[in-house]
């Protein structure tokens, strides 16, 4: 049975941990976030590459944080260890992360189940890739983007709401399975939506959303 069944373990006391990745000489940053289940909150405003507060009550969920520098480029990974265990009792897993606004960043986030609140409008994004399993995504990109970038979102069973910047050209494409697609502040052109600034000299943002069961909301107001 031990080789064929998941091990069931009880939750432990709630642990709180704060971690920081100091700013160095890197000129670009690739950040990857991997959470199996829980609540993920990400915003800007850190003077370092990252400041994070972590709360969890399953010891094996203590996040792994790795940073490497290869000269001009930094690689940051924050990862919940993989586990086949099932847990007795109510579980807690919350990440509160603050990233640096200045360094050009390629950001990837994978959330298996839970809730993601990503307020990223102040970041200097070069690309954004989000994969959600079962849960709710709220992505806020409102702000003053510094360069053109692309956003890719893949959702499972849950609702995705994306707030788009006013002071940028926006091209948005969204396809869903069973869920409804609601669009505000953009006009339809064939199989996609754009705003009045799309195709102008302003910074351009291209958004591609593919949902599963839940609703997709695109808001540019």
What does this protein structure show overall?
The protein has 221 residues and is mostly beta strands. 0% of the residues lie in helices and 57% in strands. It has no helices and 18 strands. It has strands at residues 8-10, 15-21, 28-43, 50-56, 64-69, 73-79, 86-88, 93-99, 105-119, 125-140, 149-154, 160-163, 169-175, 181-184, 187-189, 192-194, 204-210, 216-219.
List keywords for this structure.
221 residues; 16-stranded mixed sheet; 18 strands; mainly beta
Short recap of the structure:
Helices cover 0% and strands 57% of the residues. By secondary structure, it is mainly β.
Q: Shape from CA axes? A: globular
For the termini, the CA-CA separation is 56 Å
Low-confidence stretches: 1-7
Query: In DSSP terms, counting alpha (H) and pi (I) runs of 4 or more, how many helices?
Result: 0
Radius of gyration: 19 Å
Major sheet details:
16 strands, mixed
Tell me what portion of residues adopts beta-strand conformation. over 45%
What structural category do the secondary elements indicate? mainly beta
Mean pLDDT score? 92
- The portion of residues assigned to helices is under 10%
| N to C succession of SSEs | EEEEEEEEEEEEEEEEEE
Total beta strand runs: 18
């Amino acid at each position: 049975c031990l080789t064929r069944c998941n091990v069931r373990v009880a939750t432990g006391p709630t642990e709180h941990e704060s971690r920081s990745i100091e700013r160095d000489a890197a000129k670009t940053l690739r950040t990857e976030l991997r959470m199996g289940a829980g609540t993920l909150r990400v915003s800007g405003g850190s003077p370092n590459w990252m400041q994070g507060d972590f709360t969890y009550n399953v010891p094996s969920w203590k996040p792994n944080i790795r940073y490497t520098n290869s000269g001009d480029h930094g690689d940051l990974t924050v990862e919940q260890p993989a586990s086949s265990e099932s847990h007795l009792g109510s579980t807690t897993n919350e990440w509160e992360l603050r990233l640096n606004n200045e360094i050009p960043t390629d950001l990837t986030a994978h959330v298996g189940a839970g809730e993601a609140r990503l307020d990223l409008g102040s970041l200097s994004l070069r690309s954004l890739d989000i994969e959600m399993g079962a849960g709710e995504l709220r992505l806020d990109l409102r702000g003053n983007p510094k360069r053109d970038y692309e956003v890719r979102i893949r959702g499972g069973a849950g609702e995705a709401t994306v707030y788009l910047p006013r002071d940028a050209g926006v091209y948005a494409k969204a396809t869903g399975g069973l869920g409804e697609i609601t669009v505000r502040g953009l006009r339809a052109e064939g199989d996609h939506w754009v705003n009045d600034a799309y195709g102008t000299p302003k910074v351009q943002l291209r958004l591609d959303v593919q949902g599963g069961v839940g609703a997709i909301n695109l808001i540019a107001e």
